[in-house]
Amino acid sequence: EKCHPKYNRNRLVTKNVDINSFLASIIYLIEKDYQVIRVGKGSLIKADIKNNCYFDITNDERRTDSLEMYLISRCQFFLGVNSGLAYLATFLFKKPCFVTNHLPYGTFHSESKLFQVNFKKLIDINTNEVLPLSEIYKRKLFFDERAETLKTNMATFQDQQEVEIKSSLIEFIKRIENNFTKDNEEIALEKEFLKNIFNYINRDPIYRHCHGKTKCSFGKNYLLNNPYLFQ
Question: What is the pTM of this model?
Answer without folding.
Answer: 0.93
